[in-house]
Amino acid sequence: MKSIISGDCVKKEKIKEFIIKHKKTVIACSVVCITLLIMVHMFLFNSMMNAGDNKDKVSNNGSNINPRVEEIQKKGAVVLSETVGTTDAQSTTESRKKQKTTTAPSTTKPRTESSQTATTASGVKIQYATAEPVANPADYNEQWNQGYLVAIDNPDTSYSTGHVSLTDEDRDLLERLCYGEFGSGGFVGASLIAQSVKDAMYYVGFTSVAQVIREYKYTGSTTSGKNQACQQAVKYVFDENHDAVQHRIMYMYNPYMVPSQFHESQKFILSYENVRFFDKW
User: pTM (2 decimals)?
Assistant: First the structure.
């Protein structure tokens, strides 16, 4: 028994001597091991937290996103400090008078029920409205070639807006709104927000971005700044008169942040990174 205890003591002394002799190496190895354990833990934690996040994205593989979207965005590159636009107040009224919609009024009743549901952060469940099914989905390439960033199966081929000018004040406010409403959506997400504002100004007749925000109750922060993607999106949609999608979009919201039966009672057009976009019926 004494020999066993004596042997254990010898082993401990040798281990202690080794640690003291190679202290720096032991510390470095320990730090590496701890770092690896933390990284594995974070990866597993994020995987659990993000499980199911893609269930309402446009396409998991992005197959309906214009393959030239990065090229389009680079062409619209702007410097963050650059002020673009006109201060001529008269020019802001160009093409903003109430126009006749290019989409014929629908005789179909809004469909607010579907097999899809969303559960908000507060645990509230709402039923999704769904897009009108089509027998023959439209050609995505045709939409992409016209400059649309997101292709949909049922585009409105008669959709068109005239050029809407922005004052410097409107431009700055809109760029901030795009960031506050959908800053995580990059160039495509910001372009969808910008189009929503332009459609409201063109079809409803709002004369300023501030009026759109007020009347349509936008809740995105306009005090959090802006980024280059938002500036590029505003330039693409307003200055170059392009659109993100070939259909009028008037409303949008994120069902995972707040429930809205009102939005789901409107005409669903598309979803992009959990943000759902609608037209009026």
Answer: 0.67
Q: How far is CA 170 from CA 25, 77, 95, in A?
A: 61, 19, 16
Q: For the chain, what is the domain count?
A: 2
- What is the full DSSP assignment across 30-45? HHHHHHHHHHHHHHHH
Q: Are residues 190 and 238 in the same domain?
A: yes
Whether residue 22 lies inside any domain: the answer is yes
| Domain coverage including residue 249 | 61-279
Q: Does 204 lie in the same domain as 175? A: yes
The string of pLDDT tens digits covering residues 90-117 is: 333 333 333 333 333 333 333 333 447 7
Indicate if 11 and 142 belong to the same structural domain: no
Indicate if 40 and 157 belong to the same structural domain: no
What is residue 80's DSSP assignment? T
Residue 253 lies in a domain: yes
96 token code pair: 């903003």
193/186 Cα distance (integer angstroms): 11
Contacts of 103 (CB under 8 A, 6+ apart): 156, 158, 159, 247, 248, 279
Residue 75's H or E segment, with its range, is: helix 69-75
Segment (H or E) for 278: strand 275-279
**Which residues, in sequence order, are CB contacts of 244 under 8 Å at separation 6+?**
148, 149, 150, 188, 191, 192, 194, 195, 237
pLDDT digits (tens, 9 = 90+) for 155-168: 999 999 989 999 99
